[in-house]
Amino acid sequence: MKIVKGQVAVITGGASGIGYGLAEALAARGVRIVLSDVREDGLNEAVARLGAGDVDAIGVVADVTDAASVDRLAEQTIDAYGRVDLVCNNAGVVSPAAPMWEQELTTWRRMIDIKVMGVIHGVRSFAPHLIDQGSGHILNTASSGGLAPLPDRTPYTGTMHAVVGLTETLDAELRRAARKVGATVLCPGLVDTPLGQNSVTLGVAALPPGVDGSTMKGLPGVMSARAVAEAALAAIEADRVHSAPGSGVADRARARVGGLLADLAADDSFEFPRT
Asked: Which of 120, 135, 209, 242 is the most exposed, fewest CB within 10 Å of its CB?
């Protein structure tokens, strides 16, 4: 899909981080923006910042865990602009650090509701519009944690693996339904975002005493949200299903795939007992 002036993009989790980076990158291309977030104050500030740059943008408060709320987001998008071209299911949180058996059930439920069901709700509400149009794209934000193991963050990496798998399948389904409609999953490495602090605000995680969750600046290999957004848009324009920017991400993914292939090869050579 080519991204051109006058198109309409919807971005959930758009008040900060990668979502706002996507808004900036798309606005620079003349795309009209529907920015959405569950945090009304942060959303209003983000829309005001975009609007100060003479960008055509509106804000819609929506909770991605609520299917009816996302349906209303789709309705308000069509009411405002009459179409939608790019849907960025970006809202997300991070889980506390602990082994899987020590993770709280409430953490699991919240991660699944936001990261997995949030994507499902976005696809359910917007895909029919793209298919009817015969063009468009869906971008689902996951993480490098969806491409390789990430010990002590099982709720996070488990839901991110789910988003990767469902996006790969979604792309095949969309292209079968309409040749010019597809999907991409974004799996970045470390990004300078306030994800930790936002997760605290939404009640998913708690920061250790003295830790500032508002930034990741200074960490080795950390990327800006805008740089990640530009990589994602390049992948969309190239009709790629995967975008995985970041230091070491490809190496970790190759190690996982190598281990998988080695295990499969072992099964291929295994001589099963005859019955």
From this structure: 209
Predicted confidence (pLDDT) per residue in 150-160, tens digit: 999 999 999 99
Measured CA to CA in angstroms, residue 28 lies from 5, 162, 184, 191 at distances of 9, 31, 21, 21
Structure tokens at 107: 């953490």
Residue 113 gets which letter from DSSP? I
Structure confidence by residue, pLDDT tens digits, 88-123: 999 999 999 999 999 999 999 999 999 999 999 999
156 is catalytic: yes
Residues 104, 13: Cα–Cα separation, whole Å: 24
DSSP state of 208: P
Distance CA 36, CA 130 (A): 19
What residues form DSSP beta bridges with 153? 98
Where would I find the beta strands (DSSP E) of the chain?
Answer: 8-11, 32-37, 57-61, 86-89, 136-141, 181-186, 242-243
219-262, pLDDT tens digit by residue?
A: 567 999 999 999 999 999 999 999 999 999 999 999 999 999 99
Here the tokens at position 200 are 């605290």
Residue of 20, 81, 126, 156 with catalytic role: 156
Please give the Cα distance from 169 to 123 (Å, whole number): 12
* pTM of the complete model beyond 0.70: yes
CA distances from 61 to 97, 182, 250 (A): 30, 26, 35
Asked if residues 11 and 22 have their Cβ atoms less than 8 Å apart, the reply is yes
Report the pLDDT averaged over residues 23-44: 97
